[in-house]
Design brief:
The chain has about 400 residues and is α/β, with parallel strands linked by helices. It has two domains: about 140 residues, 3-Layer(aba) Sandwich (Rossmann fold); about 250 residues, Alpha-Beta Barrel (TIM Barrel). The strands form two sheets. Strands 7-8-10-11-12-13-14-15 form an eight-stranded mixed β-barrel, surrounded by four helices. Strand 2, helix 1 and strand 3 form a beta-alpha-beta unit. Helix 2 packs parallel to helix 3 and helix 9 runs parallel beside helix 10. The chain is globular, with a radius of gyration of 23 Å. It starts with a strand and ends in a 5-residue tail after the last helix.
């Protein structure tokens, strides 16, 4: 039976205002986990001894469950099954997976949950300890900043077209920071849809639609135009920084793209060298002669080419051999939590070694903690992007952030 309680005991820090559910079939482990959460400052903790009971509690809890600490190996419904069933509920909490099983199982559970769109704060091998649990809880975003998956806005083609026509697509900027040199190496422009009813919509909710219905060129043109206009404004104010812009691989069929981008850049008085074009690796596996020509010509015109999400595609080595990339951007999947995952750390180290041998600038995205930063410094990544450095911010906040964190490169 689920027990909702304010767990009693000595407080070892500020209270954490989260509604937490612990799912474990063993009473002893439920008790231990409850005590650890109590020592982290958690006061609203519920317990479930099975997957079905957990789903009932998640579906009916008021206020909603924020975070589930879910055991993986349970007799009637294991933790991976819970992930599948929780998607049918009106509210979907964040997950932390807990198990005494091997690391590979924890990694598989996290990968499954993320592939289904869940928010995963991490995985913890038993026994739990206060420091690790608190670190995972600190990754949680308050409910007002999150959307339950069942209530996620699903745009129509007409709504997206209207957003472009009404200038509701705007850009936020996330710094790319060289911690070793204490330099701001640039910012990445990240598209946002300012919806009058749903607030800020993240690109994952509308970029796939734009690609599907043939609007990705218009969306990219909008993002590039905004980035160039902002770059020109910053240049006039004395802030000369690089801006990275994501380019869909679908655009690599347009042979006029290099000339058009150069015209647009010069129109705003911005040097091509200030623009970094990030091309997702997974979108390059269908390269044609046209795509190779376009990328080569963009490089010749002064634009920096970055291979984005490195390690998630299927033809990494071939792309690095054929395309004049200057930057290698290691995907967040091989950054966050790599210090505790031997396989992930090995992939990170191999990516860094490859990038170094090819004289590429190395950027790691998705750094979430000081532990991530320490590992990135250890393996030789200089430029870091992630929440632990800075969250994406409106253009008006960028100059102040840069001035308080050192000069730009």
């Amino acid at each position: 039976m689920g027990i909702s309680s304010g767990v009693s005991g000595m407080d070892r820090g500020d209270d954490i205002q989260l509604n937490i559910l612990v799912v474990d079939d063993k009473p002893f482990m439920r008790n231990i986990t409850g005590r650890v959460l109590q020592n982290c400052g958690c006061r609203q903790v519920s317990f479930a001894e099975s997957g079905p009971e957990a789903l009932t509690l998640i579906g009916s809890a008021a206020p909603p469950i924020d975070v589930v600490f879910c055991d993986l190996v349970m007799p009637d419904m294991d933790g991976v099954e819970v992930v599948r069933h929780v998607l049918t509920l009106p509210h979907v909490p964040a997950f932390v997976f807990v198990s005494g099983a091997d690391e590979a199982l924890l990694n598989g559970a996290m990968a499954t949950a993320r592939a289904r769109g869940l928010i995963v704060l991490g995985a913890i091998e038993k026994p739990l300890n206060v420091e690790v649990v608190r670190e995972h809880l600190e990754k949680f975003k308050p409910p007002r900043l999150r959307q339950s998956l069942a209530a996620v806005f699903v745009p129509t083609p007409e709504e997206l077209e209207g957003a472009l026509e009404q200038d509701r697509i705007l850009l936020y900027y996330q710094p790319k920071y060289n911690r070793r040199m204490r330099l701001v190496e640039g910012v990445e422009a990240l598209a946002r849809w300012h919806h009058p009813e749903h607030g800020m919509i993240l690109p994952g909710h509308f970029v796939p639609l734009a690609e599907e219905i043939g609007m990705i060129e218009a969306l990219t043109d909008r993002a590039l135009s905004l980035a160039l206009r902002q770059s020109a404004e910053w240049n006039k104010a004395g802030l000369h920084t690089k801006i990275s812009v994501n380019i869909s691989a679908q655009l690599l069929k347009d042979l006029d793209l290099p000339d058009r981008m150069l015209r647009d850049t010069l129109h705003f008085g911005v040097a091509p060298q200030q623009i970094v074009l990030e091309i997702t690796e997974s979108g390059l596996c269908k390269d044609t002669g046209n795509a190779l020509e376009i990328l080569s010509r963009l490089h010749m015109k002064g634009f920096t080419l970055s291979i984005d999400d490195f390690g998630t595609g299927y033809s990494s080595m071939d792309q690095l051999r054929r395309i004049p990339f200057s930057e290698l951007k290691i995907d967040r999947a091989f950054v966050e939590g790599a210090a505790r995952n031997k396989k992930t750390k090995a992939i990170l180290q191999s990516s860094v070694a490859l990038g170094r041998s090819l004289s590429l600038t190395l950027v790691a995205e998705g750094a979430e903690s000081e532990e991530d930063l320490a590992l990135l410094e250890e393996v030789g990544v200089d430029i870091v992007q992630g929440f632990v450095i800075a969250r994406p911010m409106p253009a008006k906040q960028v100059a102040h952030w840069i001035s308080s964190h050192g000069p730009q490169h």
